[in-house]
User: What shape does this take?
Amino acid sequence: MQDDEAEPTTGEAIALDAADLEKTFGGVRALRGVSVQVRAGEVACLIGENGSGKSTFVKIVSGVHRPDSGTVSVHGQPLAGGDPREAIAAGVQVIYQDLALFDDLSVAENIAMNRLIHDGTRVVRRSRMREIARETLARVGVELDLDVPISSVSFANRQIVAICRALSMNARVLFMDEPTTALTTKEVRRLLRIVAELKELGLAIVFISHKLDEVMEVADSVTVFRDGSKVGDFAADQMDTGQLTYHMTGHEVVHEPYVRSQDDDTPILELDELTRAGHYENISLSVRPGDIVGVTGLLGSGRTEVALSLFGLNPADSGTVRIDGKQVEITSPIMAMKLGIALLPESRQEQGLFMGYSAERNISAAQLDRVTTAPGILSTRRERELAREVISFMGVNNREPRTVVGNLSGGNQQKIVIGRGVSMSPKIYILDSPTVGVDIGAKAEIYARIQAMARDGMGVILISDEPEEIAANCNRVVVMHDGRIVERLDSDDVAAEDFADRLGSLITDPGQTSEGHTEARL
Amino acid sequence: ACGSVGESGGGAAGSDGNGGGDGGQIEIGLVPKVEGISWFQRMEEGVTSFDEDHEDVSAFQTGPDSEDAAKQVAVIEDLIAQNVDAIVVVPNDPQAVAPVLERARNNGIVVVTHEAPALAGTESIDLDVEAFSNQEFGEQMFAPLAEAMGGEGQLVGEVGSLTSETHMAWYNAGLDYIEENYPDIEVVSDQPYEDNNSDSTARSNAQEILRAYPDLAGFVGTSVSALANFAAILEEQGNTDVATSGLSLPSIAGPYLDDGWITHAQTWDPAGAGYVSCYVAMQLVNGEDVATGDDLGYEGYDDVTVEDGIVSGNATMLLESGQFSDGEYPF
Amino acid sequence: MSTATVSTTRGWIRRLRGVELYLAVVIVVYIAVVGIVNPLFLDIGTLFDMLRSGAGVALLALGVLTVLVSGGIDVSFTAIAIVSAYVGVRTALATGIDNLWLILFVAVTVGTLLGALNAVIIYAFRLPTLIVTLGTASAYHGAMAVLLGTTSYSRVQMPQSLVEFGVVDILRIPGHGGLSVYVAIVAFFAVLTWFILQRTMLGRSIYAVGSNEESASRLGINIFATKLFVYSYTGFLGALMGVMYVSQLKYVNPVSLIGTELLVLAAVLVGGVRLTGGVGTVLGALLGVVLLRLFVSTLVFLGLDSNWNDLFFGSVLLASLIVMYYRQRARNRRALVFATT
Amino acid sequence: MVEKLRTILRYESELIVLVVAAVITVVLFAAFLSVEFFAPANLQSMAIQMSGFGFLALAMGIAMLSGGIDLSVVSASVLAGIAGASVVSGRFIPVTEGNGVQLALLGALTCVVVGMLCGLLNGFLIAKISIPPILATLSTMILYSGIGMAATSGQSVPVVVPVVGDFVNATFAGVPAVFLLLVLALAIAGFVLNRTRFGRRLYLFGENQVALRFAGGRTERTILLSYVMIGVLVGVAGIIMVARVNSARTGFGESYLLQAILVVVLAGFNPYGGRGRVGMLVIALLLLQGISSAFNAMQLSPYFTNLVWGALLLAVMVGNYVARQHRPRLAPKPGPEPAQSEEVGTR
Ligand SMILES: Nc1ncnc2c1ncn2[C@@H]1O[C@H](COP(=O)(O)OP(=O)(O)OP(=O)(O)O)[C@@H](O)[C@H]1O
Ligand SMILES: Nc1ncnc2c1ncn2[C@@H]1O[C@H](COP(=O)(O)OP(=O)(O)OP(=O)(O)O)[C@@H](O)[C@H]1O
Ligand SMILES: [Mg+2]
Ligand SMILES: [Mg+2]
Assistant: This one.
C-alpha cells in the first residue's frame, strides 16, 4: 500500500494548507490530526465513508466550526478560524452538502446574496440582484425563473443555485461537498466541465463525492479519509475505483447484479392507467414477488408523485391499483401499510427521521402497534428489541439504540429508515432514492439488503437517478419522463453488457422515445 | 335601630388566634382589587396612617398585580395561612371571594369588606364598610347632569364593567331618578357601554359614541377612565354640547372641571375607606361593636350608620372646579 | 431545526399578495356592512379617529413584524413600551425639564437598550426567543415597579409637553376632527421599515436569518448584529409607542398596556406574516392591524350590546381565519406539502 | 448505583438545573421566613392554590409538546365552569334536599363535557383547517369568553349546592382532595404521554410532523385528540375553580394564562414541540407556587414576584445552556429526551 504524497501536478503555489486539524463533537472525534494541502489549479478530491469527517473538514476551513487544534492558511495567509466572513474574505467558497439556501428567498436573491454581502452593499437594488444571478447562471448554462422562491424549485435546480452562489464570488479555494447528489448525468457533465474551467483559472478545488467515477474524471489528487483520519493522498492517474474503494473501506466492494429467482409470476401490485392531473398520466405497471423494478428518469418526471399515490398521500384522479388482484383505493399511509406497502421517502431529513430522537424511537415510530403490550401501552423492552433487530439486520455501525439519529452519519441514518420499513415485512417496498449521499461501503450493504428482501419474495420498486444503481439491482426498469412512462426494459435488456450506459442516455435524452421537453417540473 | 353587630364570637376567636408569637400585635391585612394603581396607593396611605395611629396594630396592604378575582383569592388564602387576625378585602368579584372569606371566619379571622354590600349579612363577612349609600351616590351623580342638560336630550352611560356591583347600583339608581324626574331625557343605549377600566378602551368608546350619536347631550361615566377620557375627547374636539358627570379623582377631574369639560364629578377618599375598614376590623378583633352614631376616626365617618351588616359613612366627596390649588391634589 | 417543510407552492409572491388582497377585501366588505347599518360610520372623522387610536398598535406591529421575519417571537414589547415611557416621564419630572425631546430621547434609549438586552440573552445562550422575552417582559416590568414604583400621573401632574404632543394635528377638517401627527409618525416608520426590510442588505439579512439561520451564518451574515438590530428596533418602536400612548391618554399609568401583546401578535399573524420566520410584509402587517382595529371599534356603530362584544369579535376573527387557512390547506395538499399545521 | 447516578448527572442536566434552583429557593425561604411558612396549614393552602392552576399548566404543556400552544385554556375553563355552575345554580334544575350530590356530579360532568367541546373545536381548527395553534386558540379564547359573557351578561353564576364547596375543603390525611386529583392527573398524563402509543405520537408529531405522517401516524387525529385531552383537563380546572369560589363568572383567572406558559417553559418544554416532561412540570409548579406564597407572606409587592419569576426563568434557561455544553451525544432514556442539536438556530 502506498502512503507517499502524490507528486504535485504543477508547480503552482499552495492555495490551501490545513495542518493537524483536530475536532471533537461532544465525545465524537470527527477529525484526528488531519493535514491537507491543495495547490492552485489543482482539483483535490476528498473521499471517505459517511461520517469519516469530510464535511467537518470543509466546515473548519470555511470557518463554520473552530478546530480544537491545528491551523489553516489560504495562500500563505493564516486564518484565525471559526469565522465564515474571514474565510470568505480569504477567498474560500463552499457549496455545502445541505446547500445552505434560503427557502423563502427568490432564486435571484439566493444567488446574489453572497456577493452583495461581501461587496459591502448596504442598499439593495433588485435589478443588480437579477443581474448577478443571470450572469452566473449563464456561466453554468442554465436558465431558471429568477423570481420564484427556492422552496418551489426542484432539488436539482437548488443544487445549481448553490453552485451559482459560490461561483458568483471570485473564489480562490472552492469546496464542493457532494454537489452532484441530485443531478442527472447531463447536469453532472456540465458541472464537471465547469470544474475543469475553474481549474484552468487557477482555483484550488476540493471536490467531495461518493460517486467514484466522477472523482476519477476530475481529480488530480485524491485524499482518502477514514474515521476522521487521513489514510493518504494519491495521484488520481495512478488509481482506479477499486483501489480507492479499498482504501476507503478497508475491503473490496463488488455489486452482484440481481437475478430474480421466484417462480410465482402472479403480480402483487398492478397499476392500470393511473393518472393524477399535473403530476403523472396513464401509469401502468406490475410488480411480481421478487421483482426489483427500477423507476428512473429526470428529476420531476413524476416518479415520486406516483410513489406518494401508492402510499396514500397523493390521491390519483383515475385509473386503478390492484394488490394481490384486488382493486384498492389507498387513501392514507396507514391504509397503505395495512395493504402491505412500505415507502422509503425521498428526503430522509424532512420526511424520514425524527432527527432529535433516538434510533429506537425512530424505528418504532412506524409500528407502534408492534411494541405495545396491553392495547396502546408501549413496552420499552420490545421497542429496544425491535431496534436491536433492525440495527443488526441493517448493519448500522453504532449499535446503541439510544443514539440520537441526528448524530449518525448519512449512510447509517439511511439504514435506519430503510430498516424501519423492512421490519414491517411489507409485500411491496417502494424505495425513493435510497442511497443519496450514502458512501460506497454502505451503498453495497444497502443493495445487499434490498436484494435479500426481494429474494424472500418482496416486491421492490426502486426509484433512482443513478444508472449504475439501477443496473446493479433491478431486473426490470421503467423510464419516466414528464409524468409518463416512456420506456420499459426487461430482464434481457438489463442483463446486457452496456445496459448502464444505454440507460444513462435514455434518462438524459428521453427525446429518443417521446417528443417530451426537458424542463424540470415540481 | 341599634345596628350592633358582633353576633358571632369572631372577635374573641380572633384574639385567641393572635397568640402566635407576634408580640401581641393585632395583624390586619388589607387586600385591594389590584396593587399599583393610584386609587389603591391612596388606600394604602390610609392603611399606613391607621397602622401608625395604633401602637398595638400592625396593618398592611397586599394584593394581586391584576384585577383578577382568582389572584385575589390566592392572596387571601395566603393571609389565612399566615393566621392574621383580620382581613379587609375590596373584592373584584364579591361572589368569588365569599367562600374563601367564609373559610377565614371559620378559622377565627375577622373579615371586613369594602365595596361589597352584596356580602353584607352573609356568613362570609363580619361587616361591610361603605363610604355612603350607593343609591344616594348614584342620584347625586345624575342630578347635576340632568340639570345641565336642561332636562332633555340624549344620554349615554358607561360603566367599568357590567358585572361591577357598585357601578351598576349607581347607574341604575341614577336611571330611576332620571326616569322619575326628567321624562324628556332619553337614554339611548339599552345598556351602558363598558370600558373594563382601560383608558384606551374608554378613549375609543368616547370617539365612537360621539360619532354615533351626533345629538348627544349628556354622558355619565361611573368609572374613572370613562369620564376622564370622554372629557379629553370633548376637549380635543372642542365640543361643548355634551354635559358630563361621573366618578373621578381630584387629580384627574380637576383640570377638566376647571375648564368645563367635566360638568360634575364625585368620589370618595380611598384612604378614608382603608383607614375606617381597618378600624372596624380592629374593633371586631378586640371584641367590640361598631354601632350607628360611632365616630370611626376619619373625616366622613364621624357619624356612621350601621344597618344590615353595612357600615355606611357620609364620605361622598364632591369635586368642584377650583377646589384644589394647582397640582395640590390629595390623590 | 425540526420544523419541517412549510408552504411550497409556486406562486409564493402571488400568494403573499393573495393574503393582502384577501384582507383588503374583507376590510372593504366589513366597512360597507357597518356603513349600511349605520351611515354615520362613513365619515372622514371616523377615519381620523381610527387612524389615531390605531397608530400605537401599528408601530408595535412594525416591530413585531421585524422580529417575526427574523424567525423570533417577542412578547416583551408592551412591557418595554410602558417601562421606557415611564422612565422618560420620571426623568422629566425628576429633573424638572418638561421637554418632549428629552422624554423621547430617554424613552427610546431605554427601549432600545432593553431590546438589545433581549438580543444579547437570546444570542449568547442560544435560547428560544419566546422564552427569553416572556422572562424579560416579567423582569423588566417587575424591575421598574420595584425600583421606581407605580405611581401614576394625571393630566396635570405629568409633563405638559406630553399632553401637548398627544393632541397635535397635521390636518383639521372642521366638524370632523383632525388627522393626528401620530399618523405621520406611523407612516414614516412604515416606510422606513419597508425600506429597511426590502431595500437594505440588513433587511435582506433579517429575511435570510429567519429563513435559515445556519445558512445565513455560513454565508458570513453577522447573526448577532442582525438580531441586535431586530430586537433593538422593536424596543425603539415600543418606546416610541409608549410615549405616544401616555401622551394620547394624557395619563401616565405604569401598569397599563401589558397584556395586549397577544392581540398585536395576532394582528401581525393575520396579516400573513409567518410565525416561523422568513415571510412577511409591512403592508400585510398593517392590514392585519386595520382589520383587528375595525372589529373592536365598530361595536358602537353596530349598536351591539357590550355583552356581545367578544362573541362577535371572536366569531368574525375565527370566520376569516377559517376561510384564509382552509384555502391554503387545500393548496398545500396539491403541492404535496405534508405538514398539518 | 454509582453508574446510575453518573448517568443522571450526565443526561438529566435540565432536571438538575431545575432541582438546584428549587433547592436554592427553599433554602432562601427557610432563611428568611418563619417556620410557620412550612406549617401544614400553609402547605395545605399552597396545595389548594396549585391545583386549579396545575391543570391549566398541564394542559398548556400538552399543547406545547406538539409544537402548539393553547391560549384559550383559561377562557375555556371559565366557560366550562359557567356551564357546570348553571347546573348547580338552582336556576334550571331545582335543588332539593336529596339531589345535591347528583346535581354536583352532573355539574362536574357538564364542566368536563363543555371543556372537551372547547378542546374539540380548537383541535378541529388546528388539525382539520390547519390554522396555526396560536391564532386558532387566540380567536377561540375571545370566542369562549364571548359565549360566557353573552350567556350570563357577565353576572356571576352562584353555586347553591353545598357539596361543591366541601369538595375543595376535603382532605385525605391532611392532603387536600383537589391536590390529590392534580397528582392523579399528572400521574395519568405522565403515563399516557410516556408509555402509550398516543403519547408517543404526540411527541413524534412535535419533533417532526411530516416524518410522522410518512411513518403512518394519523397526525390529524393525534392532534385533535390531544386538544380534546387538553379540553378535559381544562374542564377539570373549571370544576376546581368553581368549587373554590362557589360561583363562576367570565374573566375569572385571566391572569393565569401567561403564568401557565411561564411555568411550562420553565419546566423545559420546548415551544417548538417534541420536548418536555411531566415530572419537570411538577417541580416547576412547586417552585412557582412556593415563591408566590412566600412573597405574599413577606408582604412583597406582586410586581417583585414578577421580577423574580422572570429572572428565575432566564436563570434556569441559561443554566440549561451551560449544562448542555457538556452533554454527551447519546440519548438518555426512553423518555422524551432533551437532546438538542448543535445548530446555531435559536428558535
Ligand atoms: N455538528 C455536529 N455535532 C456533532 N457531531 C457532528 C457534527 N458534525 C459532524 N459530526 C460528527 O462528526 C463525524 C464526521 O461527520 P462529517 O459530516 O464530517 O462526515 P462526512 O465525511 O461528511 O460524511 P458524509 O459522507 O455522510 O457527508 C460524524 O460522526 C458526525 O456524526
Ligand atoms: N398533503 C397532505 N397533507 C396532509 N394530509 C394529507 C395530504 N394529502 C393527503 N392527506 C390526507 O388527509 C387525511 C388526513 O390525514 P391524517 O392521517 O393525519 O388524518 P387522520 O387523523 O387519520 O384523520 P381521520 O380522523 O379522518 O382518520 C389522510 O387521508 C391523508 O392521507
Ligand atoms: Mg458530508
Ligand atoms: Mg372588575
About this structure: The longest strand of chain D covers residues 157-158. Strands of chain D lie at 157-158, 171-172, 175-176, 247-248.
